[in-house]
Amino acid sequence: MPDAFRLGFGPFAAPAKGVLVVFCGDNLKFGPAASKAIAPAIDHVTRAARAERFSGKSGATLELSVPPGLKAARLVVLGVGKASGLAPKDLVMLGGRVLGKLPAGAADATVFAELPGGAMSAQQAADLAQGLRLRAYAFDRYKTRRKDDEEHKPKSRSVAVAAADAAAARKAYAARDAVAGGVWLARDLVNEPANVLYPEEFARRAQALKKAGVAVEVLDEPALRKLGMNALLGVGQGSARASRVVVMRWNGGKKGEAPVAFIGKGVCFDTGGISIKPAAGMEDMKGDMAGAACVTGLMQALGARKAKVNAVGVIGLVENMPDGKAQRPGDIVTSMSGQTVEIINTDAEGRLVLGDVIWYAAQRFKPKFMVDLATLTGAIIVALGHEYAGMFANNDQLAERLAKAGEETGELVWRMPLAKEYDKLIDSKFADMKNTGGSRWGGAITAAQFIKRFVDDKTPWAHLDIAGTGFDSRQNDINKSWGSGWGVRLLNQLVADHYEK
Q1: What does 385-418 look like in DSSP terms, one character per residue?
Q2: How do beta strands 340-342 and 433-434 pair?
Q3: 489, 183 in Cβ contact below 8 A?
Q4: Which of 227, 202, 394 is nearest to 315 (CA)?
Q5: Where are the domains of the chain?
Q6: Cα 388 to Cα 403: distance, rounded to the nearest angstrom
Q7: Which CATH class is domain 6-164?
Q8: How far apart are CA 250 and CA 313, in angstroms?
Q9: What count of Cα atoms within 13 Å lies in the side-chain half-sphere of residue 312?
């Protein structure tokens, strides 16, 4: 992450230093504030645009060094085309694009929150600013800096968003800043190496959410044994690192009102256990806790923005390692629900963790709904690639709300089937169920069918398989990180749209 990234708001005024960023539409059309600010250099801008064949087309950029008549060291003009009907997610992406266009050595920049048709509203300016903040993230804490890096990169970067009503934009940005902070936290957690972020350390970092007013409770292995979480404990029994379950509670709604619940798979490293994975690419399995990272980032965001909702986040933290004490294929475990599971493949471990944690969350908190997130199956990447997360749900309303929140934020979900016809694939000869379907076919579906057996049919529930979006996913204008922090904005939008009214 940069040594310092500062973002502020101010009035429309040409800056005395740094980089000035303005937007223009087709035919080089500027808004009134931008036209006034760059008036001394407009002839130079026009000539440069003609030479570069720049007309303001969406996505195009024109850069001018030391523009005549301006005190700014550089002028960046970003084309937005017709710029009509830009949704909030488009403005967030636009903010990310702005930061990506700033020169690496630029310490100061001013961005005019104005489209060709006029000034952005306070809400729009705040969306633009959130995109800037999301794009500013970088994970470089383990890189030793070379001398040339020190000479060419600023130790801090300050970006001012110029708006028609700076005070209103600043106020609107506060909640968006809290959400961006949750995304940054989730990215940090996913990017950390497993020798640094193991279950006990993950639990310790989650306790920092207390600063945002989130109550945090950590359950150690004796507590988990007492609860009967044998499915979860079985996954971690081959590791030298002890397993943990972390319960995070934000009480911002009416006292006594049932909470909304989010559950995350937190396999801090997954070798596959006795059913060990191939060596190639195994280093990526440090990210097998992206579901838990999302839940943690979400809970921080809800607390930081003082969301008017009661929410609970529960994450199961384990490490799946091969060892003389590790569970074997053929073992049978009794889950917290009392249902028994035959272990067919120790690499199908995430569903075992989720089964116990989902049951625990439902029994203890009686939530309005439950959403679980897990980097669960490679099969979902085969089906959907890296663009959508797979969504499985027992409730149409919850599924529709999640899909709408995905469209609003750009964190997309696609509903997949659940049907009793798939259940026979996980029936076991020796136990109530087995932990895989035993074939390549419908792997994401049979995993979801397994998890569904730990859900009370009366409780609305959705399972999000984020194997294709949680890490090493498609990068875009607001994310250049291996760990994406995917899901924080999606679930925050779900809560804001439907559960804070």
Answers
A1: TTTEEEEEES-HHHHHHHHHHHHHHS-EEEE---
A2: parallel
A3: yes
A4: 202
A5: 6-164, 178-498
A6: 10
A7: alpha beta
A8: 9
A9: 23
Count CA atoms closer than 13 A to 332's CA, side-chain side. Answer: 9
Which 3-state string (H, E, C) describes 35-69? HHHCHHHHHHHHHHHHHHCCCCCCCCEEEEECCCC
User: CA 470, CA 260: separation in Å to the nearest integer?
Assistant: 22
Phi then psi dihedrals of residue 215, to 5 deg:
-80, 130
Task: Please state, in angstroms and rounded to a whole number, the distance separating the CA atoms of residues 272 and 292.
Answer: 18
Are 6-164 and 178-498 in the same CATH fold? no
Strand, helix or coil for residue 82: coil
Catalytic residue numbers, as ranges:
277, 351
Strand 310-320 versus strand 461-465 pairing type: unpaired
User: Is residue 26 classed exposed, middle or buried when 0-12, 13-18 and 19+ CB atoms within 10 A define those classes?
Assistant: middle
**Cβ 286 vs Cβ 196: under 8 Å:** no
Question: How confident is the prediction along the chain (501 residues), in pLDDT tens digits per residue?
Answer: 445 899 999 999 999 999 999 999 998 999 999 999 999 999 999 999 999 999 999 999 999 999 999 999 999 999 999 888 899 999 999 999 999 999 887 889 999 999 999 999 999 999 999 999 999 999 999 998 755 555 556 668 899 999 999 999 999 999 999 999 999 999 999 999 999 999 999 999 999 999 999 999 999 999 999 999 999 999 999 999 999 999 999 999 999 999 999 999 999 999 999 999 999 999 999 999 999 999 999 999 999 999 999 999 999 999 999 999 999 999 999 999 999 999 999 999 999 999 999 999 999 999 999 999 999 999 999 999 999 999 999 999 999 999 999 999 999 999 999 999 999 999 999 999 999 998 889 999 999 999 999 998 899 999 999 999 999 999 999 999 999 999 999 999 999 999 997
* Rounded-to-integer distance, Cα 265 and Cα 349, Å: 10
DSSP one-letter string for 183-239: HHHHHHHHHS-TTTS-HHHHHHHHGGGGGGT-EEEEE-HHHHHHHT-HHHHHHHTTS
Pick the CATH number of 178-498 from 3.30.360.10, 3.40.630.10, 3.40.50.1980, 3.60.15.10: 3.40.630.10
* Amino acid letter for position 443: G
- Pairing between β-strand 370-374 and β-strand 260-270 as defined by DSSP bridges: parallel
Q: How many helices (H) and strands (E) does the chain have?
A: 15, 20
- Rg of the chain on CA atoms, in Å: 25
- Asked whether the CA dihedral 378, 384, 388, 389 is positive or negative, the reply is negative
Cα 375 versus chain centre, distance: 13
